[in-house]
Amino acid sequence: MTAAHNEEALIERTIASVLSQTVLPERWVIVSDGSTDKTDEIVERCVKQHEFICFVKLVRPTGHNFGSKGIALQRGCQLLEGLSFEFIGNLDADIAIEPSYFGTLMEHFERNPQLGIAAGFIYEEQDGKYRSRAANRTDSVPHAAQLVRRRCYEAIGGYSTFKYGGEDWYAQQCAKMNGWHAEAIPTLPVFHGRHTGAANNLLRHQFRLGRLDYSFGTGPIFEFLKCTLRVSERPYLLGAVARFLGFAWSGMHLEKRPVSKEFIDFLRREQTAKVLDALRGNYRGRRTSTAGPTT
User: For the chain, where do the domains classified as CATH 3.90.550.10 start and end?
Assistant: First the structure.
């Protein structure tokens, strides 16, 4: 499933990546999330050439709406009813992947029956080369090009919708709560066509992420430590400050969290364990490299 909002500059590259896969999907549902550019025209042209691609248009108010992606994915999932499949994928409309990407992911699932959600590492262009994103971690699965085992997907109730986004993070945590494993694989690059948050003001993007962290129940100490560690990521110190201010803003206004107490308790236990592991020097969740392949 792909939710696309005004992706005329990049979606053809994404479509070409899927068509080149050694393992093609049984069905690929592309949902135009209120696009006003030529995205619809590009996808409609491809639908005429490839029977396994389905296209749906959603109409909504103009502007960026982080909750709308979850709605688009839910609509796309409806078009998968009646199909026989083992995996369901979420693919962003601004990425490119190598031909063996999904086939390799499926091999990882075959080797680990408890693996519920998996994806590669995000690579973004810096100085003319694609480099592993600083935020990449093996225990944090990006939504840009992920596969979910069907039994896991059904156990977590599919993708949910949230005001600040984060449907992928919520799905990953729910999968872990249900006994499934989640893994990002460093050797599988996902080439992101734009830097994370580039569609919006970077400081505004970081401020929203802080509000997202609060809405899911992140503890204040963990949020402070996370922001401190991410000072090296664009937009550097200002971004880290903006993220923590977003978290504090939601806290000061006592915003209602859209998740259960069970979810918050599970998340905070996991975050506490990460902090303790880091203090002991045992945490290996973060794995990055300064340079990577080109595409």
Answer: 2-192
Please name the residues in contact with 167: beta carbons below 8 A apart, sequence gap of 6 or more. 69, 70, 73, 143, 159, 160, 161
Angle in degrees, CA 267, 180, 132, rounded to 5: 75
Residue range 194-228, pLDDT digits in tens: 765 554 588 999 999 999 999 999 999 999 999 99
- Rounded to whole angstroms, the Cα distance separating 115 from 204 reads 34
Its sign, for the CA torsion 91, 96, 97, 98, is positive
Instruction: Give the whole-angstrom CA distance, residue 3 versus residue 178.
Output: 26
* pTM for this prediction: 0.85
- Confirm if 186 and 102 have CB atoms less than 8 A apart: no
> What CATH code is assigned to 2-192?
3.90.550.10
